[in-house]
Fold this protein.
Amino acid sequence: MNLKNIAIIMDGNGRWAKKNNLQIKEGHARGVSALKEIVKESVNQNIESLTVYAFSTENWKRPKSEVKAINNLIVNSINNELDELIEQNVKVRFFGDYSNFGKKTYEKIKFAEEKSFSNKPKLRLNIALGYGGKMDIINIAREVSRLKIKASDINDHTINELSQVPEPSIDLLIRTGGDTRISNFLLYQIAYSEIHFVRKLWPDYSKKDFKRNINKYFNSERRFGERT
Ligand code: IPE
Ligand code: IPE
Ligand code: MG
């Protein structure tokens, strides 16, 4: 069985901060540290792509101060981590509508994408920012109409081409934080994903936990609707 494409709903930063008597922004900062470790382990495990949920379309409804702290964290994380990502041959890509984070953040993101570009990356790190699965599907429908695509020309390939999501299909989706929902993350791309819900809060999620999820994936049988 293959494990090429993993997606993660990195949930639990707020609760982690509360539990440790820290500010919410500290929770998010610790979340970035957790991601750094999981990226390293993904490289170790020869995973081809890691697609993570950093900020949803619904998260714009959070307090302004929290959105601002996340915005600063994006810029600082790119400043601090980009070189090491490039050293590991990780190709970084952001997707979603993150224009509300402002011009400075937008330009920093474009800089990170250009600088880490590689024709043969060891790992593709895709970061969903201002992303919502529903919005993506609505945009696909709008594009079909705008481009006047014939009904008979619409197939799985067309949908993947028009979607903002860089990976057409996810093998394993992990959600930390204990909740058992998708929260408007990838919809079309998880049609046949194995889905693991993990109790641990995202900042506490370690390489060891990640390896456990990978092992569990290899112990499951993916039948894809067939009689095997
Ligand atoms: C996930 O952690 C990160 C974002 C949504 C930006 P949360 O901030 O949702 O953490 P909890 O769920 O409140 O603990
Ligand atoms: C999902 O977590 C979004 C991210 C992890 C970025 P939320 O905390 O926003 O989801 P809900 O509100 O619990 O559904
Ligand atoms: Mg949450």
User: Anything to note?
Assistant: The radius of gyration is 18 Å. The chain has a mean pLDDT of 98. Helices lie at 13-19, 24-44, 64-87, 103-115, 133-146, 156-162, 207-218.
